Amino acid sequence: MAKDMTLLWGSGSAPCWRVMIALEEKNLQGYNHKLLSFDKMEHKSQEVLDINPRGQLPSFKHGDNIVNESYAACFYLESQFKSQGNRLIPDSPAEQALTYQRMFEGLALYEKVGGVIYYEYYVPEEERHDSALKRNKEALVTELKLWEGYLKKLGSGSFVAGKTFSLADVTVFPTVAVLFQFGLSAERYPVLGEYYALLKDRPSIKASWPPHWLENTKGQDTLKEI
Amino acid sequence: MAKDMTLLWGSGSAPCWRVMIALEEKNLQGYNHKLLSFDKMEHKSQEVLDINPRGQLPSFKHGDNIVNESYAACFYLESQFKSQGNRLIPDSPAEQALTYQRMFEGLALYEKVGGVIYYEYYVPEEERHDSALKRNKEALVTELKLWEGYLKKLGSGSFVAGKTFSLADVTVFPTVAVLFQFGLSAERYPVLGEYYALLKDRPSIKASWPPHWLENTKGQDTLKEI
């Protein structure tokens, strides 16, 4: 029981979900957690700011150690609980190289997804340009084709960095789930669709599925035409 | 001698510099390397694309293992050469937590620096807005104050995550150096200025200093008023 850990999180946030999957994979259930609302701006509340001066979720604490950045928390948990639960960084140099490489390419994927689905959220109305959104969409398509190719090369039934589930899946899967929640077509992106289907029922992922997605299983259609 | 390693890099790129510092810290001198020109678009050359489908620098290969993302390469080098050169991830949970946390906050710092100094490079002329650049500058100031506070709290003569040089310095220092190269005032940001002065002559950093900065020691003044 991880009673000395506290996670402040928001539903549907890929960064929060990464940390929750890592906690599950390391058998660290039973941590203290509090679901906060982005809509109500609770990520800017004093409770969050006390742990995280950026006013962002996740905010995560283990004892006195504060590790708010989602990738930082994933590395920390894997390192501190190396022999507990599933090993998330492979030992073999080749598998390890691919795990790290895909993990960090996952940040480019996440950024490009955000450039489309959060465009109106981040760009004030008077600064929006159809040309910019069009370019962001093209960049996302290029990015998605790259990942289709990566997964295809690894072969059917593979995880994102090979035959073993790893930190690359912990960090990349939530973004892939966001893509499909926002309407990405599994017909147009069949390899990503297969990867999504392979992982969505994994216990660590199912246990941490964004609760508000369960209420709205239809999702959105922002990415339908991508 | 690291003859089984190849690095394609560009001068003044913080991501490239991170990998070069990590190589120096791990005593991996003697690797093959090739300096390419961003101005001449050599990062989009076939030579790069063969290793890195994104057409980005750094592009890095160790034997058959390709690790292009700079953070991925840093983790890979530290893990594969753990007992060689300087240890870059501390063992103590508290120091490790802070190392990871600052490392990944370093990505926010880098992004905010880029939002100001590369604004015209990334945003087509017809999409530029004074209001956007002003907001980016304000975000950078907020970010810089955060780091001033972090370093101040650790006390004079500290590295970015404590008393020991770590991967957090490997990844964050190049961004700090970019700030001063682009004119940041050490009078206005004295703690960052002290950190910069502390590290700039460290052998790993001096050995990998961007060559075109040596030719243009005056730098630019983009950030003079920040």
TrEMBL record, chains A, B:
Positions of the GST N-terminal domain: 3-85
Signal peptide annotation: none
Superkingdom assignment: Eukaryota
One example GO MF annotation: maleylacetoacetate isomerase activity
GO cellular component: mitochondrion
GO biological process, one term: glutathione metabolic process
Residue ranges of domain GST C-terminal in the record: 92-226
PANTHER family assigned: MALEYLACETOACETATE ISOMERASE
Name of the protein in its database record: Glutathione S-transferase rho
Source organism of this protein record: Sparus aurata (Gilthead sea bream)
Gene name of this polypeptide: LOC115578778
